[in-house]
C-alpha cells in the first residue's frame, strides 16, 4: 500500500510558470526514492506540495489513501507525518538558538513540554549537535545548519522525510555525516525521498529512481533500469553513474561478463575485477 500518492498533480506559479503538469506517482512505505531532473523540472515544487506548503491547482495528493486536508488542523497533522528539509537551511531556521529551533515544531503540533524536551534531547544526541545546542542558529556552519534542519523534522516523529538536495554546499565530512544519518533513518522504517544531481549517490543508494522532465514524470524504475535509459538521461542533462559506465566498458572489452549483476558502486566493481583475476 502506498504511503503517499499523487494523482494528476498540477501547479502553476503566479507569474504563469507551469511547474507541475500532471504528476502521477505513488511511494511505498519504507522506500528510498531518488528524484532527479534538470533545474526547473519541478522537483522542488513537487516537494513543497508533498508537505502542504504548495497546494496544487489541480489533482489530489493522498496520505495513507486519504486526500490532503489543507485546513490549519489538517496541515499540522500532515507536517507531523511528512517533513521537509530545504536545500538552503537558512530558509528553514529562524529561532534564536538551536535548542529553541528544534523545539518549535514539535511544540506547535501540541506535544506537551516534557515529551517535547525528551524528543529534542534525543534528536540532539542522535545528530551529534550537543556542542552547539545553545548557539544562535545564524552562527552555525552550513553543515551544522543542515544537521539542525534534519533535527527539526526528526523530533516530529515523521513517517516520511523529504530532503531537497541534502548535500548541497556541504563539505565531504558533513556529506558523509548526513548520508550516514539518512541510512539510519531509513533503517528505522522512515520513507526517505531526496532530490539530487549526484547520479553516483542515487545509483548506489536508492530503491527507486524517478526522473522529472518539464513538470512530468519522464521515467521511474530501479536505478539499473533508469540509468540504462540513455535517451532519458540526455533529456534530463544527466550522465550514467561511474560504476555503470565502467561496467559497460569492461563488458564491451571482455573483461567482465554481461550476466554479472550490475554493480551499484565502484567498490563492488573492483571486487568483480579482483575475482576475475584470480
Top keywords for this entry?
four-stranded antiparallel beta sheet, alpha/beta, Rossmann fold, six-stranded mixed beta sheet, 2 domains, 11 helices, 41% helix, 278 residues
Outline type? globular
Secondary structural class: alpha/beta
CATH topology of the largest domain: Rossmann fold
Largest sheet: 6 strands, mixed
**Secondary-structure element string:** EEEHEEHEHHHEHEHEEHHHH
Measured as a percent range, the helix fraction is 40-55%
Radius of gyration: 20 Å
* Tally of contiguous helical segments: 11
**Count of spatially separate domains:** 2
Strand order of the main beta sheet, please?
A: 6-7-8-3-9-10
The CATH superfamily name of the largest domain is: P-loop containing nucleotide triphosphate hydrolases
Summarize model confidence as the mean pLDDT: 92
The CATH class designation of the largest domain is: Alpha Beta
Tell me the β content: 15-25%
How many β-strand runs?
10
End-to-end separation in angstroms reads: 46 Å
CATH architecture of the largest domain: 3-Layer(aba) Sandwich
Q: Spans with pLDDT under 50 lasting ≥5 residues?
A: none
Amino acid at each position: 500500500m502506498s504511503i503517499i500518492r499523487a494523482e494528476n498533480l498540477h501547479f502553476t506559479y503566479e507569474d504563469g510558470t507551469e511547474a507541475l503538469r500532471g504528476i502521477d506517482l505513488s511511494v511505498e512505505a519504507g522506500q528510498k526514492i531518488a528524484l532527479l531532473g534538470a533545474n526547473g523540472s519541478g522537483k522542488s515544487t513537487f516537494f513543497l506540495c508533498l508537505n502542504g506548503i504548495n497546494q496544487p491547482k489541480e489533482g489530489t495528493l493522498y496520505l495513507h489513501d486519504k486526500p490532503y486536508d489543507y485546513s490549519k488542523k489538517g496541515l499540522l497533522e500532515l507536517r507531523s507525518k511528512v517533513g521537509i528539509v530545504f536545500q538552503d537551511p537558512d530558509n528553514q531556521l529562524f529561532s534564536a538558538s538551536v535548542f529553541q529551533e528544534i523545539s518549535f515544531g514539535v511544540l506547535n503540533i501540541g506535544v506537551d513540554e516534557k515529551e517535547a524536551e525528551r524528543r529534542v534531547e534525543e534528536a540532539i544526541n542522535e545528530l551529534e549537535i550537543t556542542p552547539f545546542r545553545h548557539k544562535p542558529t545564524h552562527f552555525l556552519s552550513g553543515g551544522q545548519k543542515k544537521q539542525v534542519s534534519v533535527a527539526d523534522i526528526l523530533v516530529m516523529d515523521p513517517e516520511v522525510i523529504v530532503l531537497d538536495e541534502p548535500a548541497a554546499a556541504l563539505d565531504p565530512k558533513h556529506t558523509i555525516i548526513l548520508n550516514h544519518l539518512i541510512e539510519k533513518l531509513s533503517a528505522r522504517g522512515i520513507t526517505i525521498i531526496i532530490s539530487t544531481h549526484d547520479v553516483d549517490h542515487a545509483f548506489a543508494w536508492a530503491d527507486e529512481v524517478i526522473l522529472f522532465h518539464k513538470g512530468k514524470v519522464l521515467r521511474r524504475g530501479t536505478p539499473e533500469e533508469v540509468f540504462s535509459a540513455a535517451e532519458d538521461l540526455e533529456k534530463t542533462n544527466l550522465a550514467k553513474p561511474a560504476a555503470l559506465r565502467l561496467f559497460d566498458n569492461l563488458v564491451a572489452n571482455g573483461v567482465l561478463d554481461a550476466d554479472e549483476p550490475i554493480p551499484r558502486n565502484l567498490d563492488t566493481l573492483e571486487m568483480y575485477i579482483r575475482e576475475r583475476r584470480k
